[in-house]
Amino acid sequence: MGRNAMSDEEKEGRRRVLLAAAHRLYRERGVLPPVADIATAAGLAKGTVYLYFRTKEKIFVALLEDALGSLFARLLPALDRLPRGGRDTAKAFADHYVRLIADSADLLPLAALANAVLEQNLPVEPMRRFKTGLARALGQAGRHLEQRTGLAPGGSGETLLLHTYSLTLGLWQALSYPEPLRALLQEESLRGLARDFEPELHIGVHRLWLGYFAA
Amino acid sequence: MGRNAMSDEEKEGRRRVLLAAAHRLYRERGVLPPVADIATAAGLAKGTVYLYFRTKEKIFVALLEDALGSLFARLLPALDRLPRGGRDTAKAFADHYVRLIADSADLLPLAALANAVLEQNLPVEPMRRFKTGLARALGQAGRHLEQRTGLAPGGSGETLLLHTYSLTLGLWQALSYPEPLRALLQEESLRGLARDFEPELHIGVHRLWLGYFAA
Amino acid sequence: MGRNAMSDEEKEGRRRVLLAAAHRLYRERGVLPPVADIATAAGLAKGTVYLYFRTKEKIFVALLEDALGSLFARLLPALDRLPRGGRDTAKAFADHYVRLIADSADLLPLAALANAVLEQNLPVEPMRRFKTGLARALGQAGRHLEQRTGLAPGGSGETLLLHTYSLTLGLWQALSYPEPLRALLQEESLRGLARDFEPELHIGVHRLWLGYFAA
Amino acid sequence: MGRNAMSDEEKEGRRRVLLAAAHRLYRERGVLPPVADIATAAGLAKGTVYLYFRTKEKIFVALLEDALGSLFARLLPALDRLPRGGRDTAKAFADHYVRLIADSADLLPLAALANAVLEQNLPVEPMRRFKTGLARALGQAGRHLEQRTGLAPGGSGETLLLHTYSLTLGLWQALSYPEPLRALLQEESLRGLARDFEPELHIGVHRLWLGYFAA
DNA sequence: TATGAATGAGAATTCATTCAT
DNA sequence: CATGAATGAATTCTCATTCAT
Predict the structure, then answer these.
(1) Fold of D8-53
(2) Which of A139, A140, B102, D213 is most exposed by smallest CB count within 10 Å?
């Protein structure tokens, strides 16, 4: 670990190390970990974290940005490979999308936390960057979707994707249970809520898309 | 009833006073208020709160329970008045549902907080009660829906309602912005995300139901 | 240590215990001690301090207030016993005043810190109270002085006392040395600054008053 | 002079650049700025600052030294132009001195900070240098004063100047208010303390000198 | 000499919860 | 039942200083 000037790549590397540490701890604990813990987990000192992220919230936004970014990166090619016709499209998308989401394990818990975390101590600037990126990605993906499937009018591709994402997020929240609650799901009286997220997501997204292509 | 023992009604009254205070403070501040503030707002002492709710999380669960309960109470009659045919059903439900949601202003922020709050310090028992109640209400409403509209097979009414709720929750989270972020929504680059919740919800729910009835 | 309601006197007692602890630590270390240390020294927990002083600065202001208050309390009777004639007055006051100051050991270090401490994190409200009290005490003392000695015109008593206090404070700062510097004062080259505060104060105040009564 | 070694002038130049930066930032913010900021403002790296000042306190002492040095540099000629007679001397000096002080804007805030700053982390060696210089300047100025005005006995010139400086410093502290407190000065109850520093200083110094020359 | 990345001690404050009266 | 004083764990962020290059 040199003490002198770092190239941009090295800096970016450190950033990623910190993000990875935060990410791991978050996964393990289900709560945004204290900065001190992130530092330790990354093999660095507390103060060092603040050389890379000026506030704790920025770490969170960066995490979210990463997760959403990689979802979109994989979504675009998927959209471009969709069949044209209505019913097939819905089915094909649902199939692919559920796999995509299953692979982006951390996106949803993170996104679900966003409101709660950011209500408390909002980092406006990074948040703008994040939302801008999201808006652009959504618009772009919407256009891909429209071109490929002929969905009309203009803008409905974006809308459909926003609703798809919303359904995903909401479903995840409704069906995700903290560990100590899982056991309860066996009980007869809770059957109605003991559903697996992925099949459920498949059904919902499928139906939602059917609705859009039927309309 | 003697002077010493408190009747159940009195107890329940106190409970409701506390809940109302918590509710109001939450609405005003957008954050779960400290227990001390709830006590003061209810005209009680801090310690007294703990005679009615053993932890702060229980207050939160009770709040959520109330909000969801009243949503369901109004949902049932609405379902019973739905038209039979497919396309009409979707439209009629969406119309009514959006109004219902608009009237249940606090449900969504509260529900959106649930994951974050409960991950931290979970009160298993009250949570079980809550989830059980929810499961029952959902099942009941699902059956009403199926009977009224002929939606089949059995269980799909419940599923549809769950997905409808999920879409609502997700959409709310995607489109709700903490005050300081609102200003940014004017910017051109954020247009795609500057949508009004209610019309958007109407479109989404309408399409989702169309999908279910078309399937 | 009871856990239930405390009378106002008991509360005031606790406040004084905390103040005394802060006072002692400050004297020992020459620096405003951390809140944690004050708490420990007072036999209380950290959080308890905040039940009595909402911020650390308020502790400081309270300390200062006490010190100045007790100075004025003793100043007033002294002024009332002053001889009428000019030259005598100056001498008599200087004699008495120096003794007074010598007895108010903590006032000066505290007052000397005020600017530095308060520039950083100002508690406006308690500061207003403090300054208001000071202004009143000064005015009252000024009037006593004028009545007793015939000093004119109106207001010059207050002015003289303000200047006296200023000279005291400035002199203390010029002549007070942190421990590790004391040794150096023996050196020949520092003779000019190796003066004892009290005699020096006597000379200065005496001359200042002479100037006022001569004018 | 080769490319490697830095000449003394170059070194001294760097030192002055750093001091000027610290000075400016201090004036702008009213607080001793962090070393990192001083470095940036001087166009240097943080580490570099430590090649010129071993601790932050040394920067502070150097600043103070400068300010006092330039005050004395202008005081000496002023003393040499003083009239001989008693009453006139006091008046003439007060006139001149107040202007001098008004022009040395930074001396007083800096000096007022000295006790607080130096109590914490004292740099003995530079402090000795500073105090020695001050003692010499004071002695020299005192002799000038005595020679010019005939003030006796020997040493009283030095004393008078020390007291004059003390009065100045104390008065400044008593009458200087951090920005957020300024507003309060309008209030009736604070009138007694809402005095302008310069006229007040003039009165005080005038009287003090009268006292010395009358004695 | 100069750099600037890394360090980590340090401090203030909040707040859920307990429990003696 | 009700009170409210006391607790102390928990957490963020700052900044002087060091030192490998």
Answers:
(1) Arc Repressor Mutant, subunit A (1.10.10)
(2) B102
DSSP letter string, B132-186: HHHHHHHHHHHHHHHHHH---STTHHHHHHHHHHHHHHHHHHHH---HHHHGGGG
Contacting chains of D (3 CB pairs or more, <8 Å) are: C
Class of domain B7-53: mainly alpha
What CATH superfamily classification does A1-53 receive? Answer: Homeodomain-like (1.10.10.60)
Helix %, strand %, coil % of chain A (to 5): 80, 0, 20
CATH class as words, domain A56-214: mainly alpha
Residue A6 (CA) to nucleotide E4 (C1'), in angstroms, measures: 9
CB B89, CB B23: distance < 8 Å: no
Rounded, the Å distance between the CA of B35 and C1' of E16 is: 8
The answer to whether chain A touches chain C by having 3 or more C-beta pairs less than 8 angstroms apart is: no
Contacts with C, D 100-129, CB within 8 Å: 109, 111-120, 122, 124, 127-128
C-alpha A199/C-alpha A205 separation (Å) is 10
Question: How far apart (Å, rounded) are the C-alpha atoms in residues C210 and A135?
Answer: 79
Q: Would you call D115 and C169 a contact, using CB atoms and an 8 Å cutoff?
A: no
pLDDT tens for each residue of chain B, 215 residues long? 444 456 778 888 999 999 999 999 998 888 889 999 999 999 999 999 999 999 999 999 999 999 999 999 999 999 999 998 778 999 999 999 999 999 988 899 889 888 777 776 767 777 888 888 889 999 999 999 999 999 989 999 999 999 999 999 999 999 988 777 788 888 888 888 899 999 999 999 999 999 999 87
* Residue D204 at interface with chain C, using a CB cutoff of 8 Å: yes
What does the domain layout of chain D look like in residue ranges? 8-53, 55-214
A20 and B CB contact within 8 Å: no
Residue C145's contacts (CB-CB under 8 Å, 6 or more residues apart) are C79, C82, C151, C157, C160, C161
Cβ pair B167:A208 closer than 8 A: yes
The pTM of this model reads 0.86
Topology of the domain covering C55-214: Tetracycline Repressor; domain 2 (1.10.357)
- Within 10 A of D73 (CB to CB), how many other CB atoms are there? 10
CB contact under 8 A, A116 and B119: no
Interface probe, candidates C167, C182, C209, chain D, greatest D C-beta count within 10 A: C167
